[in-house]
Amino acid sequence: MSKHIGIVGCSYEGAALCYQTICNEGSKYLGEHSHPEVSLHTHPLSRYMDFIRKDDWQGVAKLMVSSAEKLTEIGAEILICPDNTIHQAYSIAKEAISTKWLHIAEEVTLKAVEENYRKLGVLGTKYLMEGPVYQEVLKKNNLKHEIPSEEQRNKINDIIFNELVYGIINSGSKDYFLGVINDLKLLGCDSVVLGCTEIPLIVLPDESPLPTLDSTRILARAALKYATY
User: Fold this and answer.
1) Cβ(210)–Cβ(181) under 8 Å?
2) Has domain 105-214 been given CATH number 3.90.1150.10?
3) Residue 1 confidence (pLDDT)
4) Average pLDDT per 10 consecutive residues for the chain, totaling 229 residues
5) What dotted CATH number matches 5-103+217-228?
């Protein structure tokens, strides 16, 4: 027996990668061709962006709760949201939902501690890199972090929203990401958080100058463990 996983989606590329990971790796826990029951609901990314651009995290939380309620109504017993940025509204949304809801940054941090990393570079949207989601969790665990320069943050944000969320992978953008990661390495980082759920599509582990913490797959694997134990 396993628990029903509900995915609160935001951008479809990130949600699809999370769903795919759960299904692909479910057989490790449940046997050949098997995985936990999985349901996904996502409002259009445009609706989230309307609130994010206004710094309206109550509005973001309402969309998250709307998806979470739909998922729990059809039986979801564990909730995950494969979007780092909107976790800024996680604490608000969680208050309205009693179902167990994993926090992506907490799961990434647990993995970092397990791997004995001490100083993490954090990549993601500018809202994520400049916001509290990772800062707060890493500080609680006595981990240091760095973010790219303002110019780099703006460029990364443009690549995410103009390319990655549409599934577009450009070689020039890949090179840019790898260059930023190398800069974080020069700042003393011993690992890098791929803190936008689309970044694993463009930054591959064997190409990165630093060990990667793939937030999408880390969250999916955490959900699998909770669903099968």
Assistant:
1) yes
2) no
3) 83
4) 96 95 95 96 98 98 98 98 98 97 98 98 98 96 98 98 96 98 98 96 97 98 96
5) 3.40.50.1860
Which pLDDT value is given to residue 133? 97
Residue 229's pLDDT is 86
The answer to whether the CB of 209 falls within 8 A of the CB of 178 is: yes
